[in-house]
Design goal:
The protein has 257 residues and is mainly beta. The chain folds into two domains: 2-30 and 236-254, no CATH class; 37-233. 5% of the residues lie in helices and 42% in strands. It contains two helices and 15 strands. β5 and β6 (75-82) form a beta hairpin. The relative contact order is 0.28. The model is unreliable at 1-31, 240-245 and 247-257 (pLDDT under 50).
């Protein structure tokens, strides 16, 4: 970040006190916004995902090529975690301005563009190869089966992190996860990943299957989830604000009598 300094001086009061202040003016941004795309896969070890099936409540699906969310004859809930190893290094003088998670649909049933797919912050340290409808790690039970079954105590935060809508099987769905990303990297959140489900899945017969992080290793390249992080020049307060905060250096010089 380049900037110039301007020095100004004024004589004030009968005592002849000269005040000289330094303020930052004419800020010049030397770097523009940029996007960093990271492919998320089990082979790279930079993400984990699975889904919970009400029909098979003790079966783990962590090695599956597809993760399902929604409801059909049974309910499905997805969980997804981006590992910290996938977080790109942001250059000095830059800050994150956005983050998205792109998922590629494999199949959908009885779903329309108005159906909302929701992302929420997971509150349990689930494991990819242990989570089932009944437990979050193969042995410890969710507060309510399926993260929340039939209105029980949820194991995810009620605040919506991001949402998306299905359009077609070959159209990726891009979720804005900026809030979660900043929480994981700067906000002190435990990275227990995301809960994914369809609004009202317990009363609908619609579901979507997304290619999982196992897609490439399972012989289906090009459909692994993608993390995209956008960054740009860090925000610097306006000169007036900086003066009010006492950031400008102030030197008081007494004039000789």
């Amino acid at each position: 970040m380049n900037y110039s300094l301007k020095k100004s001086g004024t004589i004030i009061g009968r005592a002849g006190v000269a005040a000289v202040s330094m303020v930052i003016v004419g800020l010049v941004q030397v770097a523009s916004a940029a996007d960093v795309e990271v492919t998320l896969s089990s082979a790279a070890g930079n993400a984990e995902d699975t889904y919970l099936s009400q029909a098979t409540p003790t079966t783990n699906a962590g090695n599956g090529l597809v993760s399902y969310v929604g409801g059909s004859a049974t309910d499905f809930r997805g969980v997804f975690r981006v590992a910290s190893s996938a977080f790109p290094v942001i250059p000095d003088g830059q800050e994150v301005t956005g983050a998205t998670l792109t998922l590629f649909p494999y199949i959908a049933s009885r779903i329309n563009p108005a159906t909302t797919i929701e992302l929420h912050r997971s509150l349990k340290p689930w494991t990819e190869n242990g989570a089932t409808w009944n437990t979050y790690d193969g042995s410890n039970a969710w507060a309510s089966a399926g993260m929340t079954d039939g209105g029980g105590t949820p194991d995810y935060d009620s605040a919506l992190i991001g949402s998306g809508h299905w359009n077609a099987n070959d159209t990726p769905i891009v979720f804005d996860i900026t809030t979660a990303y900043l929480g994981w990297t700067d906000g002190g959140w435990d990275n227990d990943g995301l809960a994914i489900y369809i609004t009202g899945d317990e009363s609908t017969e619609s579901y979507v299957g997304f290619y999982s992080t196992e897609a490439s290793s399972g012989g289906i390249p090009g459909f692994d989830p993608i993390l995209t992080v956008t960054y740009g020049p860090a925000t610097i307060p306006e000169p007036a604000s900086m003066a009010l905060m006492g950031i400008g250096s102030m030197f008081v010089l007494r004039r000789k009598r």
